[in-house]
Amino acid sequence: MNAPKKFASQADLEEKQVSFTKLSDHAYAYTAEGDPNTGIIVGDDSVLVADTQATPAMAQDVVRRIREVTDKPIKYVVLTHYHAVRVLGASGYSPQQIIASQDTYDLIVERGEEDKASEIGRFPRLFRDVETVLPGLTWPTITFTNKMTLWLGKLEVQLLQLGRGHTKGDTVVWLPQDRVLLSGDLVEFSATPYAGDAYFKDWPQTLQNVAALKPIALVPGRGPALMGEKQVAAGLAETGAFIDDVRRSVEEGVAAGKDLKAVYKDTVAKLKPKYGHWVIFDHCMPFDVTRCYDEVTRYPDPRIWTAQRDLEMWEALES
Ligand SMILES: [Zn+2]
Fold this sequence. Notes:
This protein is an alpha/beta fold. It contains 8 helices and 13 strands. It has a 7-stranded mixed β-sheet with strand order 1-2-3-4-5-6-7. The protein has a 6-stranded mixed β-sheet with strand order 8-9-10-11-12-13, with helices on one face.
């Protein structure tokens, strides 16, 4: 008999191996076998970090790696989106500015507290030394809409909103000179896209907008850094295929009059052969299918996940 699946990633306790990969003259990727990544840009006079790791203690390991390649000050932290696992380590860098899209700021106001409790409950291993997280939330000190350009000396860094996808506030960091892109969770590689706060209808077009920049290296939200046009294309294609496959399955189920639980079981059965080997597949699927079912039926915008709603949903779908 199968034991019930342990909630989300509470059973995932294995530490991952960190890699620090140079992508260009200015860009580095801090990756960890499918755990959340951090991107680093080293300019003429300062350093920019995109996505912080989950705690200030974990950020210290990123800082240690940065200090192996430069002693320039870490001036900017960019939040590609509002998720706790991406933002709660910010204070560990003591940045001069924390930058996010206005849409991301609005999500922090609306649901930051709930998300913090929810994410820590889902994946305790990712919040190592959680007691080092400052009380309250990580607040951006600068916000922008659509596009913002930073100059790290002569190095141009663009922060771009290319459309909704993983969340409504998604921001990518683009280095035109090196053609390197830091995508946040808009793009994953060998890792299951989390889509509990997603816009399934918009995500594929947003990926096309990423592709139109023609990056030659890309740091995904999870998974190894993508090097070269072929690997970048593969990462964009597999993320897009997963989102399309979930959406198609959910739309078919809804059209057939099935309820969420039936749609969930069908969708997992259909997708598991293709994607079941990706990290956090079992964790993400209940959240992803629930959000897609919401979007297809009656909730254009994602409903707020709370620690309580997480557990109720899991119980309903996995029982
Ligand atoms: Zn995320």
